[in-house]
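To assess whether ligand presence alters the predicted conformation, the chain was also submitted together with FE2/S2 (inorganic) cluster. Input:
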Amino acid sequence: MPNRQTDWPEEFDLDGQPATPEPDFELEIIEPEAAPEPDQAELYLPESNPEQPEASPQLPLSEEMQPPRYAVALQDGREVVFQHAASLLESLEAQGVDVHYQCRDGYCGSCRVQLQQGSVHYHKEPLAFIDEDEILPCCCIPKSALKIKL
Ligand code: FES
């Protein structure tokens, strides 16, 4: 019959449990890497309304230096204004007009709308195929008052 007392480990902690031996190596705590920034195209939520810019600490622009202000009429009767936004899509969203989009960069064609009146300028030549009477609001700004059909 084994002698129970001699089978016990030699060291015990205060609770009478066998003491855990000290490891002969040091643990290195590795912080997890910061999560990558989410893709802006996937999670685009405008934080402010570009068509109602906040007051700037700089001197206000004189009337002649203000960016031109163009009316954008929608076929359903609504009318919005384009003045400060970086693109027509951004301006429409800021004023509560829903436009379907995906890439926001002129290559998918999802945002295309029919241009019934007026003309636009593209920041860069879009890659998406569109008809003669269509525009891509994600990458253009008006050059005149517009009438569009969503
Ligand atoms: S959202 Fe893709 S072309 Fe405008």
